[in-house]
Amino acid sequence: MFWVVVAFVGVTGLAYGFLSLRLDEVRIQRRLDRAAYSPLAAGGAPGFQEEKEPAGFWQRWQGRWGRLMALDSGGQLELRLHRAGIPLKAGEFLAFNGFTGLVGGLFGIIVSRGNLLQTLLFLLIGLILPQLYLLRKERASMAALSGQIADSLVLMANSLRAGHSFLQSLEMVAREMEPPISREFRRALQEMSLGIPVEAALTTMGRRAGNEDLDLMVTAVLIQRQVGGNLAEILDTIAETIRERVRIQGEIKTLTAQGRISGVIISLLPIAIGAFIGVLNPSYLNVLLTHPIGRVMLAIGVLGQLAGVAAIQKIIKIDV
Length: 320
What we know:
By secondary structure, this protein is mostly helical. It folds into 3 domains: 2-41 and 56-141, no CATH class; 143-247, Receptor-associated Protein (Up-down Bundle); 256-316. It contains 14 helices and no strands. It starts with a helix and ends with a helix.
């Protein structure tokens, strides 16, 4: 009964925290939109004063959590959350990660009836699942961004040829394209509306996105703004270069598919054989695990496997 009460309190706190997050997110986004598109913001906001609101319990708690853990001192977790499109701060994500670990541990206690090893296993699963979700979302968002850059450059070039300004072409990408690239351009436009120079906003966007093709576009735009030139033709050339690079990367991926499959098979084959022998004749495999010479042979085999996998990955990885 005690653990049921603890689980109820934990889940209730989790629900309360996320409801607070959603309300705060809506309020902050509205304030940002009002500031970004107000007449004062365009002129540097000489009389603009930030609206201050008292921090709620959840904000104070997650801020203390982030400072206590000190896991995002370099801002990397915050950057990964932005790239993944997850509307959470680093402290909020760490708090959620702690909650999932707590729920996993409580579930392990209930299922295993107090077994320490199984409880720790469920606790570890609860801590790892949010990280795996973040990694999957980040990779999917980065891949989607890479596939949108060429189309966004063509859209900007056509907008410039139609007589629109550079900022209007950026706004068209933010309005017409889908996330994640529309999210990046929209944030850059908001920064420009708040008085940040165009060059600084574009440079920050390139660093924030972490994409080589977008960095190439930003560099070309910055050079054009300094030395002049036909920006529409430059963007078309970059778009064609990006499309050609994507085509070559697809061909390389097809040609190296056999090597990747070979690496997976070579990695899983010893594990499968060991599991098969362990099921058929456990005593035969126990010698390898209990005898000192067997342990040395097992360690050498594992190191050899890791070296082989690393060599295969090095061979099939070709930069374009």
